[in-house]
Amino acid sequence: MDEIKFNYENKKLPVDVIYRNRKSVTIKVMPKDKIQIIAPNKVSKEVIEKILNKNTNWILSKLNGFKDFDDSFMKRNYVDDEVYYYMGKPRYLKIIKDKNIDNQNKKNYNYIELRGANIEIRTNNWDKDYLKESLKKWYKIQSEEVLMDRIDFLRKRSEDFRKIEPEIVKVKEQKKIWGSCNTKKTIYINSKISMLPVEAIDYIIVHEFCHILHMNHSKEFYKAVEKIIPNYKEIVVWLKENNYKFILWLLVIINNNFLL
Fold it and tell me: What is the mean pLDDT of residues 210-224?
């Protein structure tokens, strides 16, 4: 297939087309000035160009929205004063280098705690990869505690929530989704969920619990969600606009999905 271009501000942006065994088409807009289409196998160039033209205004609005995008969240260096989030609030990374212990002869160690507006890491190893892994483990522990606390809260507040009984609820590292639920009634929640504000945490929990009732995204499913989280639509919009902030690693993407 010939290369497909999209006109944007007097330049032609290349469109990355990926073919898969699927029925729907997804347009992805990413910072900065990146466009990707995931399409069913054997879809013609003419059809793809027609889809692009049909969605020109949407694509332009998203590209324009990324003009002032703060990409510092995508370039983690694990150094002092980088911004991370905990329970929806910005926290500043502070690395306290313990030079009293020579990590060439001693086992690597770190101690992480919230102190005011900071996330402090006291460590004898300030290698970037080590700090990254240390923070991932710390967030996982925090997320496990927050998850159990919010489930207890939701059970006390909502009779509808109390009626839903999963087999297992676990915190798990997931790069692209906040949660999942399978047919065995096992729910997995993203290990970075403690980065989010409490309203978003509650929504994600309720969303996955309701999949035990409806293993789809039907009207009935969203009615079940709405009974427990009446303002869930506002939270979904907020998450889409702010997802990129709550990361240790991620590529922010805005999707537009539709059937052929």
Answer: 95
No. of helices (H) and no. of strands (E), the chain: 7, 12
Q: Determine the straight-line distance between the first and last CA of the chain, rounded to whole angstroms.
A: 19
The mean per-residue pLDDT over the stretch 103-121 comes to 85
CATH number of 83-245: 3.30.2010.10
Cα torsion angle, 58, 60, 63, 67, sign: negative
Looking from the CA of 14 toward its CB, the CA atoms found within 13 Å total: 5
Distance CA 87, CA 224 (A): 25
Domain boundaries of the chain, sorted by first residue:
4-69, 83-245
Rounded to an integer, what distance in angstroms lies between the CA atom of residue 23 and that of residue 13?
A: 26
Residue 16 main-chain phi, psi, to 5 deg: -85, 115
Q: Are strands 24-30 and 83-86 parallel, antiparallel or unpaired?
A: unpaired
Structure tokens at 112: 């992480």
Q: Which residues are registered as beta bridge partners of 15?
A: 4, 35
Residue 255's pLDDT is what?
54
pLDDT at 237: 87
Bridge partners of 179, per DSSP, are 189
Closest by Cα among 196, 192, 150 to 171? 192
pTM: 0.73
pLDDT (tens digit per residue) in 43-88: 888 999 999 999 999 999 888 877 776 666 567 889 999 989 999 9
